[in-house]
Amino acid sequence: MRTGAQICALLFLGLSVLACNNAKSDTSAAPPAQARAAADDSSIGLSQQQIDAAMNSALKIDPQRCWSYVKQFVAVSGSRPLGSPGHKKAEDYIHAHLKGDQVEDDAFTQQTPVGDFPVRNIVAKYPGKMPGLVVFASHYETNIWLPPSYVGANDGGSSTGLLLEFASLLRERVKNGPMDGYSVWLVFDDAEEAMQRNWASDSLYGTKHLAQKWQQDGTAKQIKAFLLADMLGDADLNIEDDENSSPRLRKIAYAAAEHYGYQSHFFGIQTGIEDDHTPFAKIGVPVMDFIDLNYGYNNSFWHTPEDTLDKLSPKSLEISGNAMLGTLALLNAGAK
Predict the structure, then answer these.
(1) What is the pLDDT of residues 79-111, one digit of tens each?
(2) Residue 178's CB: how many other CB atoms inside 10 A?
(3) Distance of CA 330 to the CA centre of its chain
(4) Cβ partners under 8 Å of residue 153, min gap 6
(5) What domains appear along the chain, each with residue ranges and CATH number?
(6) Calpha distance 318→308 (Å, rounded)
(7) So what's the pLDDT on residue 321?
(8) Exposed / middle / buried, residue 291 (Cβ in 10 Å: 0-12, 13-18, 19+)
(9) Which of 52, 192, 217, 262 has the least C-beta neighbours within 10 A?
């Protein structure tokens, strides 16, 4: 049982040093004052009254429906590394859920140290009335070097289910025309995981390709925020304060979490995470990584066959999903 954020941070730091060639982040303890600084509502340009009004109108997930998506996705696809039958099943499941929505595929062949593989980013688009767009993203594949018993229930599965729940909510919201606020795009991105356990040079293939594509065609300039979901089903939910995320978005996300009373699940650990948001950060897009990378005691479940559904909780999906949708609501309010 965790006895405090600093103890957890020290444990995680030790793990990061031991596994530096296979880690997404460099982690250090977050001084309490730094964590609390994210709750400074004045820094997001909205009064408390405006925050409350925006949050009261925010979309909110159905945690049981979201949980059913996670379970179905993991059951249908199982292990789903690039080029595998499970990967094709994952693509088909996502497309089936998005049937009738505006969907585009960013499909390409990627050269990797272990061969060439088909990669497919799936993008669903929901129109808004204001110029600009907010992107929610999650990777959906699993590691090619892990055994077939690895199903990535949390790492890839939980956040895919969360985005499928967002799709259900957004579909209902736009059925009578564009919604108030920014357009929202959901990106089910592919090829996040390293193919040979070398995170620095052999990963994030899907979002690197998409960031380059959107920079070239002008889409990147329209993105007001790129909000990444990763490993958010953990029953012991603690979302890191990622230094590679935009400071303003970190404050907005914390304000959303605080409105719901979720602040104890946020920013107890300070990190610098290399994840699917970093290719977009490098081209100047504001980014935020919603991630709980410390999964199991001393991170013992991450990238192991122990990453199974019994380690997850619908409540964690509710907390993280509502905080992300609350961030969207506050972004919309700040633009009016």
Answers:
(1) 999 999 999 999 999 999 999 999 999 999 999
(2) 13
(3) 18
(4) 70, 74, 233, 307, 308, 309, 311, 312
(5) 5-335 (3.40.630.10)
(6) 18
(7) 98
(8) buried
(9) 217
